[in-house]
Amino acid sequence: MLKKFASVRFSLSVLLVMSIIFAAYSIYYKTTYWGFNFAPGQNSDVWTIEAHIAFEPTGEPIKVTLTTPQDSNAFKILEENVIADGYKSKKINGEVSQLVLQSPAREKSQDIYYRVMLFDNIDTRGKTKAPSPEKPQKPIFDEQRLAAANQILEIAQKQEGDAVAQIIRLLNLVPADPTVQSYLPLKKTQSDMFEMTKDLLALKGIPARAVRGFRLEENRKSVAPDLMLEAYIDNQWKMYNLTTADKGLPENFAVFQRGGKSLIDVEGGENSSIKFSVLKSVTSSMGLAGKRAQLAGQKSLFDYSIYNLPLAAQNTLKWLSIFPLGILVTVLMRNVVGVQTMGTFTPMLLAMALIKTGFWAGLICFSLIVGVGLLLRFVLSKLNLLLVPRIAAVVIFVILIMQMFTVFGFQFKLNIAQSAVFFPIIIMAWIIERASITWEEDGPLNAGKEIFFSVLVAIVTYFVINDEYIRHVMFAFNELNLVILFAVMLLGTYTGYRLTELKRFQPLKKG
Amino acid sequence: MWNWLKHFAKPSELRAAGVLGMNRRNYNIIAKHNSRRLFPLVDDKVKTKELAKQYGINTPGLIGVIAHQYEVKDIFKIIGRRKEFVIKPAQGSGGKGVMVIVGSESGWFVTASRKKVGYKHIYQHISNILSGLYSLGGRYDSAVIEELVHFSDIFKDYSYQGVPDVRLIVYNGYPVMAMTRLPTAESEGRANLHQGAVGVGLDIRTGHALHGVQRNRPIEKHPDTGANLMNIQVPYWKDHLLIGAKAFDMTGLGYLGADIVLDAKRGPMMLELNARPGLAIQIANGCGLARKLKLVEKYYPTNLTAEERVEFVLSGVDFEK
Hints:
The complex is a heterodimer. Chain A is an alpha+beta fold. In chain A, 49% of the residues lie in helices and 21% in strands. Chain A has helices at residues 2-33, 143-156, 163-171, 178-183, 190-203, 285-295, 299-303, 311-320, 323-337, 346-357, 359-381, 387-411, 415-418, 425-465, 468-476, 480-491, 499-504; strands at residues 43-57, 62-68, 75-83, 88-93, 97-103, 110-120, 127-128, 208-215, 220-223, 226-233, 236-241, 253-258, 264-267, 269-284. In chain A, the strands form three sheets. Chain A has a five-stranded antiparallel β-sheet with strand order 3-6-1-14-9. A five-stranded antiparallel β-sheet of chain A has the order 7-11-10-8-12, covered by helices on one side. Chain A has a four-stranded antiparallel β-sheet with strand order 4-5-2-13, with no helix packed on it. In chain A, β4 and β5 (97-103) form a beta hairpin. Chain B has two domains: 18-42 and 152-314, ATP-grasp fold, B domain (D-amino Acid Aminotransferase, Chain A, domain 1, 2-Layer Sandwich), CATH 3.30.470; 61-146, Dna Ligase, domain 1 (2-Layer Sandwich). In chain B, strands 11-10-9-8-7-12-13 form a seven-stranded antiparallel β-sheet. In chain B, a hairpin with a 2-residue loop joins β7 and β8.
């Protein structure tokens, strides 16, 4: 027999451990693939990059090719759309994504808008695994230039960093090295610098390519894309800043385009220009979960989770998912601490009501309802009614008291009184009935004690479940409820002393 | 600052003293020895009474039972010309809803606590019982009307109003621990320790007082009568034990509490049985229950009759050594 009980405890412990492992995995899964957060109200930044393409038609059929961003390790695409009236649009997803817009010849100057919304994926940054590219073709230099280039490569070795960084540092040296000065054009643009570096790297046999993108800062209008250099070193594409030679993808840098192809190519147009603006908006992490799940190829699981439900249903479930924790508190208070309460789950229901009413308002309102209710109940006890009709009368009393409080609360603008409606009516009626019977049988002291301990447990429960953080975690990681289930069941086999028994049996102590 | 901690014992200290806690009682003792289907036998006093008769256990005489609301007005037909009677809920517990009438004065009834009540009050009380106010889980109940017990003079000095009784804890048919519960002014004549009655632990072999407590504090003298509690010697002790031992045969409950009163004329009588007896008896005895239960499990024979078991207990074999 004893063995049987021991095995109950053992199997419940195993189940508890299993549920913890499951919950741990599930939490890992949700944070990784769905982007769930432990902190409540966490927001993800959503960046909107808008490209405004303008050009004058030449009278030939128009074909606009725009290189568009791809999902990267750093940023994922939430949404993209084009505003281009009358254009046929086509998306090409290859090594680079391109948006191709086609239209018959037009006359007026054209404005095309392309908008993409990106959100941060919080992942490893800067290092992109890729198949090994071909060896770059050596640039075609005349003899004099080749000599200069070789000389530069030699001097560069004195600079810090790896081969790429050395070259970039040397080219940007202030004051400039005389050899470099003669080698570089007088007025150097970012793309000139890129070409120079790329050629020099090609000479050394290091493949390199351009990366265009945007530093995501708030409300940047009419910005040109930043140019970065990616070089293939140690079997990886590594990114370099063309001025500082800093390695790696900078914070908040959204890559728009990689590789040699130009950002925009307009056929049948001239004087084409492209302007970008960057805008930051904020969306809750939960809101992006579905999108993230889809991108991670985990969409079907997400569809069957509660987070895919309509918001109203989610709110109800959010409310429900806190119950198990309240129940756990009740179990602990009764079986481990050893507090006696009126009705098993009365304190938990009171705590739930306190959350809706606010702490002090709720307590004051509760005291008033119970006080007035007890008063009326004493009048009632003089009438010698049968039990069920008497409790029914108390229920109606409670409803009337609540109505009165709410009306007066509204008139006198007291929020306290208005919170009356949140208390569970039947529970309130039973509290009043029980208290008044205890009062008659065991005196007001015991009645007061019963109410006090019930409210005490309610307050403890309130402070546990009112925490915004805990509530968020219990909802976002609802598998924790499974852990609570087995914890509660395991507590059902707890045979140790209750805390209050340590005091109660204190006179018996030995040893 | 940490002075209040003195009022708490360490769990290890309680374990050393063999104290049985509530959780362990529920999980290891009651769940193990008291099958739930046996509970109705002791939860319903009418059933208990009928069963007791078959087993030759004395109980207070039954005057009548009121099971339906329309019978309530028959109460005075039932009691006839009796001036003393007790009304209790058949499924009550812990002495709740027990009304003791000890006499009548010009149309009023006098309760044990010398309160005068009218017939309306009695109707009301019975109605309350029927509608389940005092029963476990609020089930519909019936009211039992019993003869009043005239407790033996032995207890006169040890009791303030009310009826003192003896509580036996019976484990696997062996009475293992005993105490007598003495009503006080504080408990308003009731024999419940949590209401302030005095509990005096009794030597299970002799029925002699061991140790007295009131509200968890040691006590030597009855607070109202001043009588020395340590002089208590319960007479007919063997008969008390026999009731407890037979109660096991009768109910099959491995762990039960038997409440016994000593009537001046009829001797020890079983008042009620309890399938979940409380743990306060440990405090009254100044001794833990867990160790005693373990001894019974380990060393006490399992195939004896009630009489043999009582003899076994009285013989006082001490297995602790």
